[in-house]
Specification:
The complex is a heterotrimer of chains A (209), B (215) and C (494).
Chain A (H helix, E strand, L loop, with lengths): L1 H29 L6 E2 L5 E2 L5 H12 L53 H4 L3 H9 L1 H4 L12 E5 L14 E2 L9 E6 L1 H12 L12
Antiparallel strand pairs in A: 1-2, 3-5, 4-5
Chain B lengths: L9 E3 L7 H4 L1 H5 L13 H21 L26 H9 L3 H4 L17 H4 L2 H10 E8 L2 E8 L7 H12 L11 H11 L7 H9 L2
Antiparallel strand pairs in B: 2-3
Helix pairs in contact in B: 4-8, 7-9, 7-10, 8-9
Chain C lengths: L12 H42 L12 H33 L6 H23 L16 H20 L8 H23 L7 H36 L6 H15 L14 H13 L1 H15 L10 H23 L2 H7 L3 H31 L6 H33 L6 H36 L5 E3 L11 H15 L1
The chains are: A mainly alpha (209), B mainly alpha (215), C mainly alpha (494).
Chain lengths: 209, 215, 494
Amino acid sequence: MTSRNIGLALGIFLTIAASVTGLVIVPNWQFRELQPVKKADGTQYPVPYFGEQLKGRGVYIDQGCIYCHTQQIRMKGYGADIRRNWGTRRSVPRDYIFEKPHQLGTQRTGPDLASIGSRQPSAVWHALHLYNPQITSPGSTMPRFNYLFTEMKDGDALPAGAFPADVVKIPAPLQTNGITQLVPNDRGKALIEYLRGLNKTFPLPEAAQ
Amino acid sequence: MNPDQTKPELKRVPEMEDSIMEMHTAAMREMQEPRDGIRPTPVLFLIICFFFTMWGGYYMGTYAGDWTGNGLAERAAGPGAAGPSAPQNPMVLGAEVYNACTQCHQADGKGLAGQFPPLADSEYVNGDVRRLAAILVNGINGELVVKGQTYNAQMPGWKDNYNDEEIAAVLTYIRSSFGNKSGPVAKSVVEAVRKEVGANGAWTSATLTEFANKK
Amino acid sequence: MSDTALELNPQGEAVSRIEVDQSAEWVVTIYWASSLFWLLMATLAGLISSAKLHSPDFLGGMEWLTFGRIRPVHWDTAIYGFGGTAASGTLLWLQARLCQTRIPFPKLLIAGGIIFNVGVLLGSIGVLMGQSTGVETLEFPLYAMPLLVIPYVFIVIANFRMYFTRRSSHTYVSQWYLMAVTIWFPILVVAAEASTNLGAVDGVAQAVANWWYGHNVVGLFATPTAIAAAYYLIPKVIGKPIHSYHLSLLGFWSNAIFYNWAGTHHLTGGPLPAWTITVGVVGSMMMFIPVITIGINHHMTMLGSFHLLKTSPTLRFAVMGSMVYTLASFQGSLESLRSHQEITHFTHYTIGHVHFGMYGFFAPLMFAMMYYAMPRLTGNEWSSARLIRIHFWCTLFGTALYAGAMCWAGIRQGQMMNDPAIPFLNIVAFTKPYLWLRTIAGLILFSGTIAFLINFIRIVQPHKLRFVTPTLLNTERDYKMLLKKESELKHNDK
């Protein structure tokens, strides 16, 4: 009786020990030596997040953007990610070595964002889109992130710490409640900087497969 | 379960727990605890297991790349990978490419008032095709006057995203959509522009005008 | 809750059952009452999430309720809040019954249950307040997770104690699954937290560990518990042996071996080496073997007893669970294939599948367990057969509508996404009516849960009078008569 008990418990343990080894330890070991590559101009790709972009990544996480957006481009011929201009090449493990935690995502209620910064560098666009997605994308089901912005009516003074260059005018036909301008607050600014920095177009040799 | 246990009989709960069994009529009426039967395992089922195992082994062997961290290719690229071989209808290809432009220029080509210029009735779209191709190839930043309105935005270049045929197609598309009635743009125009200025960064209104005047 | 010393009558399994039920009374009821609370919370969070997807301004503008926060709260309260407590209660009662031992350390287990609930509450509030870890299925902040793990350690100890002091020499198949759950789950959580939120693993390797965990919560925690319940309830209620011992053996071990590896199918097409996805696909497809095995065992056992589905609430829920297990697993195995994933990855299809499995298989088996055991724990019977019928049909129909709408929408969504000529916003517009159907399905499921809640609240209340025959689905209970007679008694007693 005892040996069968032990056999059962041991067998159960071994099945999970095998998968921990195979799916937790081995992949980590396989990527342990992945380093960024040097670009022609001396900088590297990818770059660890810091400053505004790191803060913005925190906003991305606490707002839960991952539940509608992915950050991974599938290979050419498998799906239509590249033909939709979501990226210029498939994404590879090296793209993510500084991602803590990863934000790969599993749902595309909204488009992929792996290289959103390369196709959408305009801070103004991001501000309008985040404040009220209907402005740039009518019919979108993305929620409004109005709390990342200070709303201003005509004649309002700038909020403390904001520069005139930060002010975003809402297109006149889409203004509501007399709100004509926006200024992103700290978190809004950081998030926009993070999104503008998302760019996985740098050609990596392993992506040519 | 007795079939005649359908009358909602009410019984009083005993005050003292002198009859445990009476308290637990549910447990008393239960069937015995489950036990194992012994039946021969169906042969057909074993054959199915065998085939799955064989398939599993084959799949593992064929699709695991080289088992290293570098073996990314899951399979030979699917039929869409090589891209279409024959030239495509520019209006169809152009419409497909244009889907990437709608976030700023909108699906109706009217842009966003004060922020992103319209393509409908635009002098840039309907004018010099070489200048227009240059905008697509390198992008344009800063102040730009379109139809009397001043815009100040950032448009990225698309030279790394699209080839000459695709850029020519989308230009053809926008020149004959949204009310525009201008002629198509040939792939050779885009090719020439890319060769000439493709290495440059984004235009400004001033540098773009300079380029357009230099014929 | 007296602890009368009973001598085990060798001919009276019944007496030992009563002993077990008495020891389990408070512990298991508290776990299951918690599970019902969390099911309601999870459904509410799910309804809000679902509504926000087709009506983004619903309860809009409030940061703490934004979709990206309420959706993970739905998920975590459903898995940990509902799943964790329902499975724990099931495990304790089932293991006690099968080992013919009392539940040990009841006070410790009750304390554990309370701590667990606090943990889920703190974790959920943390996510709503913006402290999510950012890792799917592991969003609870690090201050909440230990509150989920520690109570589970108590359960593991209680389970081992019962198992190693059991009175029978032969272990029944359910006990193997329960033993497996207690060994797997703590290892899963610790390894997953270490790899993700504690930072031992980086980059895409972290993604592999993440989804190794994510799928194994379903496969190595929820599924085995529910299968253990089905293996107990189906032969128990109909009074026949389970079809084949050797199939039980094969089913258990093939489940244990293959399910562990299936998780990477959540990352198909992603930035990963081919082998990681391939082992996930093979692990998922090989699941056909245990699923067919268990299917034969359950469905062949039922042969000749289907007429009992007319009367037994337990059996109805259990058989629904076991049939959907077969269907949802076949669906999942096929879904893992790369060609299938090319279309359905990233779409609503995944959500349809997971709810088909969780609300068509896991939840019904937990409900079956509660419908069976609560009369034995409380000494009362269910107050209304009609409410049970409502609960059942809402569960069945709601799940079918949910899965059907989401899976169909997902396939079309995926096909359209793979056609670059179709503008993205058109795809969004296409899915909207199906998202409405999902909200409606959620409301139906919610209604069923309310029906169950009413019955549950009534059965846990102490009564002076009680029904002595089971609440069968084809009989009406006159609960009003009971209440009336009780108040008469009270009046006479004064």
